[in-house]
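Second attempt. The first submission of TetR/AcrR family transcriptional regulator had a stray character pasted in from the spreadsheet, which I only caught after the job came back as garbage. Lesson logged: always re-copy from the clean sequence file. Corrected sequence (210 aa) follows.
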Amino acid sequence: MKTDGETRSARKDREIIQAATAAFISKGYDGTSMEEIATKAGASKQTVYKHFTDKETLFGEVVLSTATQVNDIIESVTTLLSEAKFMEGGLQQLARRLIAVLMDEEVLKLRRLIIANADRMPQLGRAWYEKGFERMLASTASCFQKLTSRGLIQTSDPYLAASHLFGMLLWIPMNEAMFTGSNRRSRAELERHADASVEAFLVTYGVKPK
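This time the job returned cleanly.
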């Protein structure tokens, strides 16, 4: 479906990237051919090469397009960590949203694929981190700075505090999923883990009652 303001060329780019994402996740980088991507995209191989010069370039576009999907998460961070929302349990809501998005099966598969190809295409792993995870950390740290100035949490290093929250939230379920091949936890289990992570975080960074 053509989105508002989308040109024919942009639409074809999107269709090819969507087809490539499915193919790479299914068969890996080496197991995927440009011909297969063309078939999935409903285009000729010549059309795919016209839009993307080679398979590595197309894989890079897949990585970047996925990384930039964090924009809606960034918006959630700034909304849920505003003063009013924070007081209404915004941190818990944010933790639940983050773990649901980052533990999505397709995201996990793409993450493994990027890691598997990090030695020969290190720039893609760097882009994935900088445009995705690092942006989320920076946005969270900025919100923590504002919450600290308003006396709602206490931290001398907001970026470190954000890193601690993400670490507690993702270390166990993410490593479990990466090494076992899939996310074996139900949504309810992930939410309980998110709640426990927030509770532990506030023991250290929450404002102590006088």
